[in-house]
Structure formats: C-alpha cells, structure tokens
C-alpha cells in the first residue's frame, strides 16, 4: 500500500506548494514537460522488454482499448446533448477513458488479489493503457484542443510523441530479447520512478476545490462514467457476451475500475483541455476510487 500512500502524499504536497506560493503559478507546466518527455518514455523502456508476450494476453490487453472507445462514445454523445464544448469533452474522455492501471492498479491488485497477479496489471498498463494514451489519447487531445489540427498535423504529433517512440523502441527490444546493462537498468528505474510523484504534485498544484461548484455537473458525469458505467459495460461484455471467467478476467475488470490515469491528465492539461476539470477528475477521482474499488472487488467475486 506504500504506492497508494505516495499518491495521496504527492497530491497534497502539490496543493500545499501552490497555496504557500513556493512555486511559480505556471510551475506545473515544467513538471508536465518532464513527465511527457522523460518519465513516461523511460517507464516504457524499462518495463516493456521485461513483459512476457503471448496470444492469451489479448483479452486483458484489449480492456483499455474497449474502455476508451466506450467512454469516448458516451461522453461525446452526452456532451452533445448537454451542449458541453469540445475542450471539456476532451478533458473528460482523457481522464474518464484511461484508468490508473499502474501506480494505483498494481498495489490495489496486490492488496485484493495477491502479488501473483501484479504482472498482469503491468501488462494491461504498458501494452493497453499506455499505448492507448500514446495513440488514441493524443489524437483526441489534438482534435479537442483550442487550435484546430489537420490530419497531417495530428500524424506528425503522433510520430514525434516521445512516449510512443519509446514504446515502439521498447517493443523492438522485447522482440529482439535485448537486456540492459545494470547501469542502464538502474538509470531507467530512477527516471521512471519520477512519474507518479511528479505527476501527482503537478495535479495538486492545479487542484482548486473552489472551482468545484462550477464544474460539479461535468465532474459528476466524468466520475460516474469512469468509476461505474465503463467498468459495468466491460463486465457485461466480458462475462456476458465473451463468456470470460476466472481470476484473470476479474483482475482485468478490477483494473478498469481504477481512478483516472495521471498520464492522460498530463496530456489533457498540456493541450489546454479544461485544466481545472482535469485536476478535479484526478484529485477527487483518485480518492473516490479508494471507496469504490472494494465494492467492485466484492461484486466481481460473484461473477
């Protein structure tokens, strides 16, 4: 549970830094740039070459893709009916459509299902959530940002997105069975370890509970979809239509019920997609997930 404590501590630290004015008002932008260009890429380079790949993993790896597509369809449809602008819709899709399957997911899996299933959590995160963020997530960010982007511009951003480039390189290294020298492995571990602390500090620096009233409807929509609607839809798909069963299926759906992904929030903020709402989604969503996850564990035990 140390990772969970770390998440909350860094979130509160970010809030205190902003309130005490010990950092510049836009200090979170420098942190975000480091996370996107250094922390996320090194995490992929570190973890993916170590993951065992097989056809049997298609079911859990497909979960983040299905969840993102489901959330995008629901948010865009509801948003259109409610007159929500594209920037806010994009913020909700990137936060409600991507789950924190690593820094929250892995310790939660260990706590509820045991350490033997943490490897499955990493696979879902790296080859599912992480890859969705680097492709579909970035595409949504480009389409929903204030500046309109052509198909060519989006393709260039995808082709030069550091996390995606690192992920492709990591997959190539995995196929080639390349192992890092100890010094390189240690360097990647240290840099990758900065992701959760820095990202949560950044979110905390942008979190302003005073803006909650004006964002309450959108926040309720986003968290309702993230913590209830999307996991429920996937449970019906996997257990009802596909006929999945057993602990791997339960762990996969448990991952779907995690709070919003920190990396998705950082990308949304970098593209100016309603930053106050993004911070509220991650801050309040992380805390709310601690309350909803035991309920999902109990419900999934009957599946």
Textual characterization of the structure:
The chain is mostly helical and 303 residues long. It has a single domain (2-300), classed as Na+/H+ antiporter like fold, CATH 1.20.1530. The chain has 14 helices and no strands. It has helices at 2-19, 27-47, 58-82, 86-96, 105-113, 118-144, 151-159, 162-175, 182-192, 195-206, 212-242, 247-256, 262-270, 275-300. Helix 6 runs parallel beside helix 13. The radius of gyration is 18 Å and the shape is globular. The model has no long low-confidence stretch (mean pLDDT 88).
Give a quick set of tags describing it:
mainly alpha, 303 residues, Na+/H+ antiporter like fold
Helix and strand succession? Answer: HHHHHHHHHHHHHH
Helix content: over 70%
What is the CATH class designation?
Mainly Alpha
SS summary, helix count: 14
What's the short story on this structure?
By secondary structure, this protein is mostly helical. It has 14 helices and no strands.
SSE arrangement:
Blueprint (H helix, E strand, L loop, with lengths): L1 H18 L7 H21 L10 H25 L3 H11 L8 H9 L4 H27 L6 H9 L2 H14 L6 H11 L2 H12 L5 H31 L4 H10 L5 H9 L4 H26 L3
């Amino acid at each position: 549970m140390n990772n969970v404590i770390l998440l909350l501590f860094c979130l509160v630290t970010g809030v205190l830094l902003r309130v005490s004015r010990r950092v510049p008002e836009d200090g979170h932008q420098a942190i975000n740039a480091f996370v996107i260009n250094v922390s996320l890429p090194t995490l992929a380079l570190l973890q993916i070459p170590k993951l065992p790949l097989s056809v049997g993993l298609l079911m859990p790896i497909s979960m983040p893709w299905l969840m993102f597509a489901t959330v995008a369809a629901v948010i865009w449809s509801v948003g259109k009916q409610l007159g929500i602008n594209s920037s806010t819709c994009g913020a909700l899709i990137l936060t409600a459509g991507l789950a924190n399957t690593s820094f929250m997911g892995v310790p939660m899996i260990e706590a509820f299902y045991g350490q033997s299933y943490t490897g499955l959590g990493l696979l879902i995160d790296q080859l599912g959530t992480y890859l969705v963020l680097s492709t579909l997530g970035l595409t949504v960010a480009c389409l929903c940002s204030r500046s309109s982007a052509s198909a060519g511009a989006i393709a260039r951003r995808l082709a030069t997105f550091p996390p995606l480039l690192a992920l492709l390189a990591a997959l190539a290294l995995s196929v080639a069975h390349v192992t890092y020298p100890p010094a390189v492995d240690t360097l990647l571990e240290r840099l990758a370890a900065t992701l959760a602390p820095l990202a949560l500090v950044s979110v905390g620096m942008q979190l302003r509970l005073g803006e909650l009233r004006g964002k309450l409807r959108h926040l309720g929509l986003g968290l309702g979809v993230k913590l209830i609607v999307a996991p429920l839809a996937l449970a019906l798909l996997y257990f009802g239509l596909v006929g999945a069963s057993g602990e791997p299926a339960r762990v996969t759906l448990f991952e779907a019920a995690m709070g919003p992904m920190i990396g998705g929030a950082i990308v949304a903020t970098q593209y100016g997609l309603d930053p106050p709402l993004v911070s509220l989604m991650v801050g309040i969503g992380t805390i709310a997930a601690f309350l909803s996850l035991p309920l999902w564990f109990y419900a999934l035990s009957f599946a």
